[in-house]
Amino acid sequence: MKKFFSTIRNIFAIEELRTRILNTIWFLIIFRLGSFVVLPGVDSSKLQDASGIFGFIDIFLGGAFSRASIFALGIMPYISASIVLQLLTVAVPYFQKLQKEGESGRKKITQITRVLTIAITLAQSGAYLSTTIPAEAIGLDPFLFKIASMIILTAGTIFCMWLGEKITDKGIGNGISMLIMIGIIARLPKDLFFEISTKGMSGALLTIIEIIALFFVVMGVVMLTQATRRIPVQYAKQVIGNKVYGGQRQYIPLKVNSSGVMPIIFAQSLMFLPALISGLWSDSSDIANYIGSTFSNIFSWQYNLVFGIMIILFTFFYTAITVNPNQIADDMKRNGGFIPGVKPGKQTSEFIDNILSKITLPGSIFLAIVAVIPAFATMAGVTQGFAQFYGGTSLLIMVGVILDTLQQIESYLLMRHYEGMMKSGKIKGRSQNAAVA
Question: Which residues cross the membrane (predicted)?
Fold first, then answer.
């Protein structure tokens, strides 16, 4: 405990770090306050709680979705636009060229992402207003209400995007990820209280067991996020003037889960389609009704079986487009590095690709298991709201964001010659890349 308080004191002793932490808290408070501001003309007492797929979306928005808030769409359209641009950089030569242009190319991609975010928000806001807000809750002319609300929702998303960028620039951690995490955590006290009140005093022991099980699940996710396979790289010695450079051994840390949470996001995006498509024939087909009801329930075994398979496939797909063994091998060869016992060039690329395939398979299976744990938690008697914290996107995002933030704080402490947050080892966040000089 003394070590803990000493670390807290050291953190706030660094003026820049203290300012960044206070800025982050202030921006997050603004974001949470905005999520309670209801759209003009909406009677919040007549709104219904989000359920099914909409309830799942509401988890990431901290309840703003079901409250018809000005931040009802939050940062989600920006994430969708970022995913689209990320895929375009793989498939379209123009975006590949922009990515290789350095800082100027990144600025152009950022501008395109912002414009695409506005377009996606306008489309999603129209669908949101039509499907989630009942007519009896609207106190204005329906046409004027829809136009005004689409503008307000788009402005709300742009403001959230601005907040995220400000947190990244003037705060601590990744701003966009931080906004998502705070929305998820905001629901934890409510869901935990509901879980405890549902079990009552007679189920106090069961509640304690559930919390202990949640602790071990979180530890497992931390291990999945941190696990790496280190490939040794030896650099040849170079004599420049009177000094000798190189000759040291470094490592390429290939992550077991190098794709992060993206496979789950991709899979969930496609899992919305069966319920939406089946709704078109729900009046005339029993099969369509069955598919719609089955895949609208995110806790059904059919949903989770398909969901798990898709996560495994998307893990391989996303790893293939984000980790390029050929580029890693070329960079090593250019800088005089080589893997002991492996020839530089093509054989090095094949060696890295082979290792990457071997570690991606168990990583993808573990990721799929984490994603479907909430369904097993509900079968064990955990309420649906609290079960969402046992796995899936929400838990992976929280663990990843917290590790990234702790990594930044630790780097500040070590840079100012303070003792780190851990006695041994280092905190490794998602942003750590391969150590290829």
Answer: 21-42, 70-92, 112-131, 143-164, 171-189, 201-224, 260-281, 301-323, 359-380, 386-406
